[in-house]
Amino acid sequence: MDEILEILEKDARVSVEEIAKMLKKKPADVRKKIAQYEKDGIIIAYKAVINRELVKDKNAEVRAIIEVNLVPQKDLGFDKIAERIYSFPEVSGCFLVSGTYDLLVFVRGKDLHTVARFVSEKLSPMEHVRGVVTHFLLKKYKEDGIMLKQKDEDKRIAISY
């Protein structure tokens, strides 16, 4: 992968000037390359990784990962059904995977019942959906290569002899 993309993937806040200095290139060349990546859809968005467990929010979301088994459509495979599934506002991610199920779907809802209703009323009854298994996320330790857990301070008193 291009060095500019690698740098931005690790930290999207790195300035064009900093990238140019790191790579020994002109800022104008780096800016032009980034603009081309954005135009081509290679860079889709810039985002922050947030440790939601540290955010004191009474409206915190419930997150779930759903394994979905599908019956592929003739001449279309999994793409059309996946498109219908990822179009739901509750769906934050959708991946075609190998293994015992076909899609891995990431869902968010205001509470457990909202996610359960999505699964039972929208997802499970869909044509071509053979079965689902829902896993509720209890705790997130690492996301996008970034560890979310802060090291706890050792609250024990130091003892010396």
Write the layout of secondary structure elements.
Blueprint lengths: L2 H8 L5 H8 L3 H13 L22 E9 L8 H8 L4 E6 L6 E7 L2 H12 L5 E8 L5 E2 L2 E2 L14
Antiparallel strand pairs: 1-3, 1-4, 2-3, 5-6
Helix pairs in contact: 2-3
Description:
The protein has 161 residues and is α+β, with helices and mostly antiparallel strands. The chain folds into 2 domains: 3-39, no CATH class; 57-140, 2-Layer Sandwich (Alpha-Beta Plaits). Helix content is 30%, strand content 21%. The protein is built from 5 helices and 6 strands, in the order αααβαββαβββ. It has helices spanning 3-10, 16-23, 27-39, 79-86, 112-123, and strands at 62-70, 91-96, 103-109, 129-136, 142-143, 146-147. The strands form 2 sheets. It has a 4-stranded antiparallel β-sheet with strand order 2-3-1-4. 9% of the residues are buried. The mean pLDDT is 89.
Task: Describe what is shown at a glance.
The protein is of the alpha+beta class and 161 residues long.
**Widest beta sheet: strand line-up:** 2-3-1-4
Give the terminus-to-terminus CA distance. 54 Å
Major beta-sheet overview: 4 strands, antiparallel
Level-1 CATH class name of the largest domain: Alpha Beta
Low-confidence stretches: none
Mean pLDDT: 89
CATH superfamily of the largest domain: Lrp/AsnC effector binding domain/regulation of amino acid metabolism (RAM) domain
What is the correct CATH architecture of the largest domain?
A: 2-Layer Sandwich
* Approximate shape: flat
Number of domains: 2
Question: Which fold name fills CATH's third level, the topology of the largest domain?
Answer: Alpha-Beta Plaits
